[in-house]
């Protein structure tokens, strides 16, 4: 309609333009008369008038149309503004939806239990797929419990609780089945089960600790019972084998004056048992050989090394498996630390001691068990890397360890009593004391506090016995020295040069052995007893030679005894740089020089007999 009106207006304007042009032409022809002009143009004027009226009418119509069009435009503008407002509202709602899209998606993914996950728990036996599945399920279980205000979470909570009960039931049966071989047979390789199986599924047990504490406590008691029986049986057999070997080499305490000549020799091979890094340990099957013999310190060392390896390995496993604060990452990192490296010899039919220890958790022993070398596959946490992170965990781990290892510590204590009663010889006893110190240091590195306390307690028990042994030696020398003055002792055991020389050799053997076994020069317990023993030996030599009236003969006898002591001190030890040894040699060398000086002085003071000429 607008285009039609526009064309009409255009046509009128063209006609008006033609009319104006004609008028202008008429005005120019002024010579023409007006009458003729109007008469001739009357029709045109009429038509022009009609056209002007028509144009006015059209302009009025156009004005009316434009007014209507303006109203329509205002209405359209209002609608556009309304549409813009609606668009902004929709855009705001869209942004709000987008803001909650991720949290909502996350919530749905966190609480939704997929059919495949439910199928693993409901339809499959416990295995490796359960490790990841239980982790995912526990996350959804925790989320559904924490979002109780969400109806969907409440609805899924009942399903999740049912799956939790099913999972706990299956895991209980699974772990009980794993514990059964430990309980049923001592030939079971326990470390294989611990490192290759139990630690691999430790996250499943941790799930029970968090989501089914009653089941986890039941399984903990079941493991403690199985492991306790396992270690109790193994160590009972091993201690019995060591006791059988011990009876073949009875060694009882003899005072220094009654000891044999063979005991006066320094035995460096036996002194090696004072260190962990020493001879191979005694194996249980060796007891079957009736001719096999071992010194008491070798048997004691074997028992303590086997105890140490088993105790620290068990503590490490308990920490990694039962400590509630251990995360899966901690367990996985600890698994890489315990690769088998050396075979630990242990009792016959005992799995744990006869298997291997680990790179950070082993004694330096390279022997074979039952004539074969069996290595454990898998790994176990190095005790230096897996520690209970809270006091509660530490108390829990210590408690479980004690429940498992109590029978073992009792057998060790029983064997220790047979070692200390009756009293052993001084050198083997000090050798065993030094061994306990070395083992305590190693156990500290492995960070097993209960085992450390136990070994330290053994050490505490042995020191008073050592003090008593040394006191007996000192008293025996004292009585022997007093017997030289005509006492009761002299009537029963007359003192001779040989007996004094033998006592001197035994003293030197004590001194050399103690120096070999003592790294620190300021060992009050050791060297104070040696000092007292030396004083009694000096008194014995002095009183024994007092009965010699001749000064030269007396000094010669003393010098001979001093030289015996000096020779044995010089050749009997490899610790020539030891300060105590140097002082000891200096002391006896001084006495020897004094005796020789008396010989020279007495020889010079004697009257010379000159030949008298015959008359």
From TrEMBL:
Q: Which InterPro entries has this protein been placed in?
A: Vps52, Vps52_C, Vps52_CC
Q: Out of the domains of life, which is the source?
A: Eukaryota
| Gene Ontology BP, a term | endocytic recycling
Give the Gene Ontology MF terms in alphabetical order. syntaxin binding
Q: Is Membrane included in the keywords of this UniProt record? A: no
The residues covered by the Vps52 C-terminal domain are: 275-327, 398-577
Where does this protein reside within or beyond the cell? Golgi apparatus, trans-Golgi network
Q: Which Pfam families does this chain map to?
A: Vps52_C, Vps52_CC
Keyword terms, alphabetized: Golgi apparatus, Protein transport, Transport
Question: What are the GO cellular component annotations?
Answer: cytosol; GARP complex
> Is Protein transport tagged as a keyword?
yes
The chain positions of domain Vps52 coiled-coil read 42-208
Family label: Belongs to the VPS52 family.
Q: What is this protein called?
A: Sac2 family-domain-containing protein
Q: Which organism is it from?
A: Ephemerocybe angulata
């Amino acid at each position: 309609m607008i285009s039609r009106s526009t064309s009409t207006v255009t046509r009128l304007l063209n006609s008006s333009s033609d009319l104006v042009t004609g008028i202008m032409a008429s005005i120019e022809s002024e010579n023409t008369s007006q009458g003729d002009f109007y008469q001739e143009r009357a029709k045109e004027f009429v038509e022009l008038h009609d056209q002007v009226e028509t144009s006015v009418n059209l302009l009025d119509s156009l004005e009316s149309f434009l007014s209507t069009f303006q109203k329509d435009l205002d209405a359209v503008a209002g609608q556009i503004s309304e549409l813009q407002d609606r668009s902004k509202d929709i855009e705001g709602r869209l942004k709000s939806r987008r803001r909650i899209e991720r949290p909502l998606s996350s919530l749905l993914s966190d609480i939704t239990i997929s059919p495949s996950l439910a199928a693993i728990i409901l339809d499959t036996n416990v295995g490796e797929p359960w490790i990841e599945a239980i982790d995912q399920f526990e996350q959804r279980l925790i989320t559904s419990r924490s979002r109780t205000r969400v109806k969907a979470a409440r609805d899924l909570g009942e399903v999740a609780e049912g799956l939790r009960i099913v999972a706990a039931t299956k895991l209980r049966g699974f772990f009980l089945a794993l514990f059964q071989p430990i309980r049923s047979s001592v030939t079971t390789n326990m470390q294989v089960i611990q490192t290759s199986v139990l630690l691999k599924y430790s996250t499943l047990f941790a799930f029970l600790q968090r989501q089914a504490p009653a089941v986890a406590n039941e399984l903990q008691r079941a493991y403690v019972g199985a492991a306790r029986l396992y270690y109790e049986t193994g160590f009972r057999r091993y201690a019995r084998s060591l006791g059988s070997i011990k009876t073949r080499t009875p060694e009882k305490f003899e005072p220094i004056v009654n000891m044999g000549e063979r005991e006066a020799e320094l035995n460096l091979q036996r002194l090696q048992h004072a260190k962990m890094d020493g001879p191979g340990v005694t194996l249980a099957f060796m007891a079957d050989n009736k001719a096999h013999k071992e010194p008491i310190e070798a048997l004691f060392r074997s028992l303590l090394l086997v105890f140490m390896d088993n105790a620290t390995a068990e503590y490490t496993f308990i920490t990694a498996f039962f400590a509630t604060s251990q995360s899966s990452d901690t367990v996985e990192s600890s698994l890489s630390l315990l690769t088998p490296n050396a075979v630990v010899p242990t009792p016959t039919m005992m799995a744990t001691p006869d298997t291997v220890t680990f790179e950070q958790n082993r004694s330096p022993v390279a022997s074979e068990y039952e004539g074969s070398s069996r290595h454990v596959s898998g790994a176990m946490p190095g005790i230096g890397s897996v520690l209970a992170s809270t006091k509660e965990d530490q108390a829990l781990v210590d408690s479980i360890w004690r429940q498992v290892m109590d029978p073992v510590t009792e057998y060790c204590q029983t064997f220790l009593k047979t070692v200390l009663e009756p009293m052993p010889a001084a050198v083997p006893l000090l050798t065993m004391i030094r061994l306990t110190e070395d083992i305590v240091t190693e156990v500290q590195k492995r960070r097993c506090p209960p085992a450390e306390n136990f070994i330290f307690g053994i050490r505490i028990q042995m020191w008073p016995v050592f003090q008593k042994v040394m006191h007996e030696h000192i008293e025996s020398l004292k009585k022997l020295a007093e017997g030289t003055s005509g006492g009761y002792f002299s009537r029963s055991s007359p003192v001779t040069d040989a007996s004094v020389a033998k006592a001197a050799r035994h003293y030197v053997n004590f001194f050399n052995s103690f120096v070999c076994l003592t790294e620190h020069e300021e060992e009050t317990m050791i060297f104070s007893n040696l000092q007292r023993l030396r004083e009694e030996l000096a008194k014995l030599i002095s009183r024994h030679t007092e009965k010699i009236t001749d000064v030269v003969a007396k000094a010669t006898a003393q010098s001979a005894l001093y030289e015996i002591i000096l020779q044995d001190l010089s050749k009997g030890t490899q610790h020539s740089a030891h300060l105590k040894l140097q002082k000891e040699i200096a002391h006896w060398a001084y006495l020897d020089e004094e005796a020789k000086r008396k010989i020279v002085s007495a020889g010079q003071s004697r009257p010379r007999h000159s030949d008298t000429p015959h008359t």
